[in-house]
Amino acid sequence: MGSGNKGSWYKLLINKMDAAIDDKYYFEAVFIEYMIIDDRMKTLAKMAGLDLKNPDGKPKMLGQLIDEVKLAKKNQTIAQWELLDVGIPPASKEVLKSIKKVNYPKKMVNDCIHVPRTIINVERSKKSGNLISKYGQIDNPLLNQIKKWVEERNHWMHAAGDDALTQEEYEEEITPLAIDGDSFVRELCDVVKKIRRGIQRME
After folding, report:
1. Contact predicate 81/58, CB 8 Å
2. How far is 106 from 83, CA to CA, in rounded Å?
3. Who's near 19: CB < 8 A, 6+ residues apart?
């Protein structure tokens, strides 16, 4: 039986996620991030009036939930649902300037710096010389980017089982996956809170 206080449980999970990244336990960090993203997407699905199970009674997979929430969002009248497109507002110029000197992702990992995906994507764009990040265009809707992260996580997880990657390749993939997951968790949690508040104001 749970404690009945989901806020405390989330605080515990995020503290564990912070500690895992700070101590370079990226495997553990990604596991926690996936748990939180999965739960927040289920909350969004319920708020959108969706069923969490398929007609055969089996739970819907995370990727399916994301796709269905994207479709259901179009039928919502509360403005906060638009946050699933824009996410957290872009960082200020001052913050962006401070990130310019960052050697991504090393300093973010070493100092356990949590930043919105907008900054991560800007850094990737500067390094690649174009406006494409690991998750598509830098203005790609939040749910599209999260789904891409889930796909990356699934690829990494299954690659671990069949020994498809060397240890070096594995570490190279898991490090940014953990950092990106941290940002997605924080942004998604923030968006879900704002959507819930919007719904409560309408009731």
Report:
1. no
2. 30
3. 25
